[in-house]
Amino acid sequence: QVQLVESGGGLVQPGGSLTLSCAAAGINFRLHALTWYRQSPGKQRELVAGITIGDNTNYADFVRGRFTISRDTDKNTAYLQMNSLKPEDTAVYYCNARHYFSGYDYWGQGTQVTVSS
After folding, report:
1. How far is CA 82 from the centre of its chain?
2. Extended strands (E) in the chain
């Protein structure tokens, strides 16, 4: 059974940091691109950062320079290090895994990040 489980969300003050984790089970982690998305109330889900099976990374303009995506294939886990957090970063953050050959998507259940003083 495929599972993506996000963790690490919570309440943080503006300017603070959080690290999100996405633990994968039931998939060949090395053959999946990992992407973090987020969704705020009343807004569409948007791409935050992605990492390919070759460890190439891409970032949305609104997080570039503040967020860092990485993956540990030994632990089957992807990470999103978030620094200099802003209130507008408040959202539910979702992990997505896409198989390199088939394009099949898997999603986690999401983790809430709230940036507020």
Report:
1. 10
2. 3-7, 10-12, 18-25, 32-39, 46-51, 57-59, 67-72, 77-82, 91-99, 105-107, 111-115
- C-alpha 64 chain-centroid distance: 14
By DSSP bridging, strand 10-12 and strand 111-115 are: parallel
What residues of the chain score a pLDDT lower than 50?
Answer: none
Reduced to 3 states (helix: H, G, I; strand: E, B; else coil), residue 89 is: helix
Residue in this structure with the two tokens 């983790």, named with its chain if needed? 111
The Cα–Cα gap between 98 and 71 comes to 14
- Cα 2 to chain centroid distance, Å, stands at 17
- pLDDT tens figures, 68-95: 999 999 999 999 999 999 999 999 999 9
pLDDT at 60: 98
Distance (Å, rounded) from C-alpha 49 to C-alpha 68?
A: 8
Tokens of 5: 């489980």
Residue 11: both structure tokens together: 């309440």
Contacts of residue 55, defined as CB under 8 A and 6 or more positions apart, other chains included, come to 71
